[in-house]
Predict the structure.
Amino acid sequence: MPIPLLDLKAQYLELKDDLDSAIGEVMSSAGFIGGPRVRELEAAIAEYCGTAHAVACANGTEALFLIMHALGIRAGDEVITTPFTFIATAEAIAHVGATPVFVDIEPDTYNIDVSKIEAAITERTKAIMPVHIFGQCADMAPLLEIAERHGLRVIEDACQAIGATYKGKRAGSLADVAAFSFFPSKNLGCAGDGGIITTDDTDIATACRKMANHGTTVKYYHDTIGVNSRLDALQAAILLVKLPHLDRWNAERRAAAAVYDELLADLPLGRVTTREYGENVYHLYIVASPERDRLMDVLKAAGIGTAAYYPVPLHRQEAFAHLGYGEGSLPVAEAACPQTFALPAYPGITREQQEEVAAVLREALGG
């Protein structure tokens, strides 16, 4: 029986009656843009994350873009971030005319290496944007201390980490402002694109909300040039059905990770270290091997879902070639990218399925 990397059909069937009812209510109301479902979701996410505000928007990329505008980051500015992430992180920086400055990663968590951040700060640096990669928070305490010392803003790219914690606080409440994605494959996903911004700063929330709605807070009166980045009511309704199940799903992801940790312990595979400072929500269960491509081919041939995360670090992407990062400039990220790949570890996966995954890997590795 095939084992998918993520089973969204099973998740839908689990909640089918509630999801169908919520979708039907929105269709019956014909209120598709904004409205009570979006406002309810914003309040629920703010409460969940422990922030004063949440601002819904079209997707996680737009959430980062809106944050850049709200913080006044412009051409000539620099934002320090990680090269080991999806391109949206740096794309949002580039779209406002600023320059992403890449700092290498930790070899065991794949999060940004905080010890390397201070050396990358210049007089043009305006913000630091850590990514809580694969569902584990970056080490925020020393990062925030660096930012405070240099007068810099901190933006959490928490798109993979809803529900993750750091020293008792949830992702999204750890810095000046944070961005989340509700892409279908995320731990909390909708049925298309969706995103949200969380912050305790009223000015940031107001600026993001205005920018996302064509630069207006009063219809047809525009204080600034904005964009159209609104979350559909249908997506909000779906997310409101799913949100009460998020902590259980994250717990199931942690349980699946623990099973893999046990089953793969004696195999020559790198695995992510989970730091003691918080709970990892395992958006993805990542392993590493210099034989990645061969192992992925073996898994796929056995009907097991897998994917490479990430094949090319951002500083070596053609889109950022003009920044001049040469080969070997960020060696940890460059070493990780040809090796890291994901195994199925979604809520509801059975131990028997995980044992099958482990057996295929064991045979492929001659174990």
The mean pLDDT is 97.
